[in-house]
Amino acid sequence: MSPRAGSGFRRDASGFPPNPVECAGGSRHALPRRHRLGDHGKLRGLVGLEICSIRGLHSKPMRFWSLIVVLIVAASLTGERGRAADTIDARSVDALTASARRAGLRVLEGDHLVLVTDRPARAGDGVEDLPRIFDEAWSAWCKHYALDPASHEKWRAFGCLVVDRERFRAAGLLPEKIPDFANGHCYNHRFWMADQSNPAYRRHLLLHEGVHAFTLTLRSLDTPPWYTEGIAECLATHRLDDGTTDGTTDGTKSRFVSTPLPLRAADVEQLGRIEKIRALRAAGECPGLADIFATPGANHRDLSAYAGSWAAVAMLSLHPRHAPAFAAAERGPLDAAFNRRLMETTGWDGDQAERDFDAFTDEIDYGYDFNRSGIDWTSPSGRPLDSLQTVSVAADRGWQNSGWSLRKGARYSLKATGRCTIGALTGHAAEPPMPLETEANGISLRWYRGRPLGRLLVAQWVENPGDGGRPRCVVVATGAEGTFTPATDGVVFCKLNDPPGELADNDGQLAVAIEPVR
Ligand SMILES: [Zn+2]
Question: What is the pTM of this model?
Fold first, then answer.
């Protein structure tokens, strides 16, 4: 699974193992072969972190005679090696649980997860709560895929939270055919994960592997790796509601709340997906959507591939322009042709998705509000601005298409008037929040991305920025008045400077007058 933030990062385009679709091939009946199982799982992270690896039920049926040969070979094997190979799929959750109890491992049971661990019980570490949180997440996963929970109420995963692998091997719960994972490994309804020191990251890892178990078994998932890992990341990302909303502060009552796009960094300690996308952007190395769609599974060995897959699925799930087609594609077969199926889905617009993805990664932040930050691309060239024109800029939206186009090489003047609310100051709990007002120059009380909050920003979309990075909005003017030169031939976009997750509490608009300087 997914590596932690701060684990280091380096691009390495050489020596990728085979495509994981092939790696994951084989048959549910087949004797699992070490090299196959391991291909996806034995990819070394850059600081030794091993990434998530999975193996599913969906794998291609084996031909009859091949199956006979395999069965003969399997039958001829003796000792633990043979038994382990045969039993990864075959042993029931009850049988596995009995083995765990006999071995003296802790067994924590929920409705949909049996979690066994050799981790000593420690008050306040949250491990006891994991099966309950898993069950809450499971309901959210059913909802995501429009599955009736009642039809799958008997579904259970068997997870091992591992400190000492030898104890699990001795108990017969860690077959030697399972690759020597560093973070996690999922095999149909079974998963193994290395214990983590951070409770939030431990929960995330558990749920990430849980999504794999869910999708492999209930949706026969065999998709390209960006979806496999991206959906595991999105459906695992969450915050815990501490229960204060229902009148209790009892930590044991904290509830799973799905946040595919996390609202606050504090909710997802050590996850680092947003920070990684920002760093890739700053380095001019951020992938576009098409790059992510084509990313081999082998690349999912470092944080950047996970961050990219997560960002792609998050945008496609949450952006109002793309969510309906994406959801429709997700309800269909989750097979190796998923990319093609998505592109053939009614309502899919690949060009806009690519551009919207670049706009998203350009300004990615916690709580990014796709409803308010979605850009209207409908008049990409706009009408030529040959005389004074005044446009209205709403405070509660991201980049707004003015409909007017500027000419590179010309010079323009700008004058903005009006007053807006840009959030509120919260002080003492007993006092009502004080609306924070701004004019086009912004307020120096707080800065965002190097500029005062609320400051008017005027930009153009540049497909090939001078710094060589992905397409982005290039700011050409800011503030209440001045003159400026365009970055390109093209339409003007305006907005107030505010985090894209904090637009909902803004109000009002500015009037922005732009005219050519003769
Ligand atoms: Zn994974």
Answer: 0.83
